[in-house]
Task: inverse folding
């Protein structure tokens, strides 16, 4: 403080004592120390907002997270009001709105603070996805991430951290961030920025990079490498849950990769939403509504006398009630005969032409079903 005051005198500048605060970092109790700057007393506070980050004396980030959560949600709602809701915005455009306008708010400074789980922010991302896709609240999380090809927010923060780590290693040793890094690398006994970074690299099979403290790849090569590794890790975790959840019975048959689904590019909003619901297992069919009523799985039969469970496969490829509609698909598909019974095709994995006819089928079949019931 004395040095700063001297420096101010030398360069003829004064400090705004009302705006200046003191934060004492560490776990120790607040002492009785009085702080003065330029002859005036400075208040000691628990946290201070610096460069957009709330720095807390106890080195916790909860205050900043609360603030970022609120801000992200607010921006998401604004973006929502801008047109995603009414379906005017395509899925691709809405995805862009999320990635360009909303998500950066949630990732501000995440290179530094991002290592912990943060469920609230994962939920915000999923809520956005549900809105974009027009899905029910009870839809499985894996469907939202799966259809959009999204990573968890945690995985995004891991990527940002490793990009920043390369920056640190390439930084001039005289610069302060680099000096702090060099000092921290040696402190292995405590939980620090470095200990998590090391653990992350090891987890991604890049432990040797940490050992060498050296990255030979250029910026884009390094980004590509860590993206590939994180994609593999995320896909693996995601697929594991997909195979475990009973509701995803149909989804796991047609979806194995964590990547954006091409069928979402269609401009048939109604058909697209129905198709996603069928894929997700959270839909209007007996297998799902019967579950909500508490019926055992063997008793959720098709209403139309088919004597089998009404699941997605039955609705799309078997039920006699819609046989005539399926014939039309066969005609469009070139009269192959069996193709309209191909579940993958009926769930949107075919060409864009066949997708059109499939969406038509789904809309008409669903409307007919609703009319009869
Ligand atoms: Zn039936």
Result:
């Amino acid at each position: 403080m004395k040095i700063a005051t001297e420096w101010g005198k030398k360069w003829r500048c004064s400090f705004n004592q009302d705006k200046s605060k003191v934060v004492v970092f560490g776990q120790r109790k607040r002492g009785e120390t009085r702080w003065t700057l330029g002859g005036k007393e400075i208040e000691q506070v628990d946290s201070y907002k610096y460069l957009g980050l709330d720095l807390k004396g106890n080195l916790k980030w909860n205050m900043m997270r609360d603030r970022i959560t609120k801000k992200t949600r607010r921006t998401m709602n604004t973006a929502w009001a801008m047109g995603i809701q009414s379906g005017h915005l395509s899925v691709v455009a809405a995805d862009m709105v999320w990635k360009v306008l909303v998500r950066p708010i949630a990732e501000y400074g995440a290179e530094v603070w991002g290592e912990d789980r943060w469920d609230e922010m994962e939920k915000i991302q999923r809520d956005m996805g549900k809105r974009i896709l027009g899905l029910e609240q009870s839809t499985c999380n894996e469907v939202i991430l799966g259809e959009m090809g999204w990573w968890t927010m945690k995985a995004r923060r891991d990527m940002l951290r490793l990009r920043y780590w390369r920056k640190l290693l390439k930084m001039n040793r005289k610069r302060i961030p680099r000096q702090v890094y060099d000092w921290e690398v040696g402190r292995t006994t405590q939980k620090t920025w470095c200990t998590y970074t090391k653990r992350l690299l090891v987890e991604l099979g890049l432990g040797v990079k940490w050992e060498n403290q050296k990255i030979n790849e250029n910026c884009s090569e390094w980004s590509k490498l860590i993206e590939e590794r994180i994609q593999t890790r995320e896909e693996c975790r995601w697929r594991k849950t997909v195979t475990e959840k009973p509701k995803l019975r149909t989804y796991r048959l047609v979806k194995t990769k964590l990547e954006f689904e091409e069928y979402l590019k269609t401009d048939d909003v109604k058909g697209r939403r129905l198709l996603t619901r069928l894929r997700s297992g959270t839909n209007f069919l007996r297998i799902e509504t019967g579950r909500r009523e508490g019926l055992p799985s063997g008793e959720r039969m098709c209403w139309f006398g088919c004597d089998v469970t009404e699941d997605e496969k039955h609705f799309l490829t078997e039920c006699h009630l819609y046989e005539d509609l399926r014939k039309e698909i066969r005609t469009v598909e070139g009269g192959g005969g069996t193709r309209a019974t191909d579940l993958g095709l009926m769930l949107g994995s075919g060409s864009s032409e066949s997708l059109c006819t499939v969406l038509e089928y789904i809309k008409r079949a669903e409307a007919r079903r609703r009319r009869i019931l």
Notes: The chain has a mean pLDDT of 89.
